[in-house]
Amino acid sequence: MNFLKTLQNPFYVDLRGLALIRILLGLLVLADLIIRGGDFFIWTTDDGVMPRHWLIDWNSPWRWSLYFVSGHWTWSAFLFSVSTFCAIMLIAGFKTRVFSVLSLVLLISLQNRTPLLMQGGDSLLSALLFWACFLPMGARYSLDSVKNSLDPIKDHHKSFANNHLSISSGAILIQAMSVYFFSAFLKTGAEWQLDGSAIYFALHLDDTTTGLAQYWRDYLWLTKPLTHYVWWLELLGPLLIFTPIANTVFRYVGIICFISLELGFLINLQIGLFPLISITSILFFSPSHFWDLIERKVVLEKKKKLIIYFDQPCGFCRNLCLILRTGLFIPYAKIAPAQSVPEVAKLLEEEFSWVVETADGTRTTKTKAMETLFRCSPVFWPAAPVIGLMNRWGDRAYGFIGAHREDIGARFETLLPIDRQYKLPGKISETSAGIILLTVILWNISTIPDWRKSFSTNDKETAALKIDFPSFLSPLLRAVRLDQTWNMFAPYPTRADRWLVVPALTNEDNLVYLSSGSPAMNETKETELKNINVFENYRWRKYLHNLGLARFEKFRRYYGDWLCRTWRDEERPELRLQGLHIYQKRQKTHQPGEEPLPVTAKRIWRHWCNKDKADSIDKQIDLKLGIAAN
């Protein structure tokens, strides 16, 4: 009997946790836009390194993008602006499902427009946003949920419980753990499963590691056990976190283990937002016990008498009070019409203002009332002194709003109809989520090239056991970027550093090393070349890394065209380029205890800004590099 009491359904999510994740997803989208934004002209316009006409032909027909409508910078800037607005609305929880879908559409459009910048974190972010469209992300602590908190202590939880169990809740949890579970099956190399050298080799990829990683990466007594720990955690952690017996305990343990793993990635590998996106996905498992504790200790323990009075005929005033109570996390605050208390009604008429009353009977109005509410908030209390300093300007703003409240209220009611009850996803939504979930699971299973090798370290040659994905279902997943492969450092970490060097010839026949995404690179800067810090951001590092791969060879032409058009010497801006060569430098990672291996170089591209002088340009570049003519 006691055994049965410990059973819990492992596929639920907590609505309060979804509120936090909604905010984090919006912030991650904003962060991604900021990182890309400085170079949006380069990445998303026809004058950049990936013109539309070429990208549309190169891409799969299912890789659609709103950025393909126009290649002008104004269209890209417009889409960036719309994406920013949608992310802010998602954070606020205003029409959450609508703006979740719009954010997803715009994110997929941006990812399909910039395929050379893609990494695993981008795939995970779009997948999380996709499943968020099926979940009640705005059910708690959002503008959408204001109606559900008319009586905050009772009615806030009466409409539906905090524990949300549905097909879509199970889907988002399975998605979060698929990243680790299928990654473990793809890590078939001896470096992971036998000799434990995977972390050693991963941390010797100098273009992605931090200074901290370079400090301890040669400590084999540490890297070997950590390698085995990571592999076993990725394999068994997802199974344990879905255990129905004492699920709350296993959720806590799983969250601690996986978040600590991601924090390790964050401080040792400069891979952009990927660890933060992964941490966000893990927070879907935060148990209701945790949120009950937070609500009790942080919110309700601060419960004091707090009353917000509004002018009864003003529906806009009441709604604004509801929004403030929800947004400031003060659900215990009572909202009442000022006319219900004669003294308060008199104060309202004298000050032409709302009134806030605290436990000691102090009543404040206008900006001071707002300062009082912020001071009572368990989250935003640090902002209270700032609001206090803005008292004079705040009172003027309040006076303007009070004088025009009827007009403002009418517009407010149109944009934000508070009296609509928040609704949970319906049967059609859940059925669709179930079908797509099964398809995604099958896709992930099909990414394993040989299931026999995943369970055996035997080197004996046998026929591969692979489960194929039905080709007719592929467009469904490709269209929404759910065609995912979690092959980070799989089947083993790359054993060599690779980077590009671009010597070019100016119109004065001088040799220069081009600076683009990283400082000018030459033979005297070998140690600098392999440090991530030389790149402007991780998007540039990913782009230049991919440019060296055979799969993206034809993109080099457009990179060369862009350099010819845009390169300028800072001291002599009148100089132009005649042509350039792209060399790929490579240095194999040495075995533990051995000396570093030599750097090799291979020319992978020749480009001429003036094609009429191609032969002459090549000869001069080779001559200045000291390369003998063949």
Describe this structure in words.
By secondary structure, the chain is of the alpha+beta class. 51% of the residues lie in helices and 9% in strands. Strands 7, 8, 9, 10 and 11 form a five-stranded antiparallel β-sheet that branches. Strand 5 (355-357) and strand 6 form a beta hairpin. Helix 2 packs across helix 7. The protein starts with a helix and ends in a 5-residue tail after the last helix. The relative contact order is 0.10.
List keywords for this structure.
630 residues; alpha+beta; 5-stranded antiparallel β-sheet; 4-stranded mixed β-sheet; 28 helices
Topology:
Elements: H1 2-5, E1 12-14, H2 15-37, H3 40-44, H4 52-58, H5 73-92, H6 96-113, H7 120-132, E2 163-165, H8 167-186, H9 190-193, H10 198-202, H11 211-216, H12 220-241, H13 247-268, H14 274-282, H15 288-299, E3 307-310, H16 315-327, E4 334-337, H17 342-351, E5 355-357, E6 363-365, H18 366-376, H19 384-389, H20 391-403, H21 405-415, H22 427-446, H23 451-455, H24 474-479, E7 496-501, E8 503-506, E9 511-513, H25 526-529, H26 538-547, H27 555-566, E10 577-588, E11 600-608, H28 614-625
Parallel strand pairs: 3-4
Antiparallel strand pairs: 1-2, 3-5, 5-6, 7-10, 8-9, 8-10, 10-11
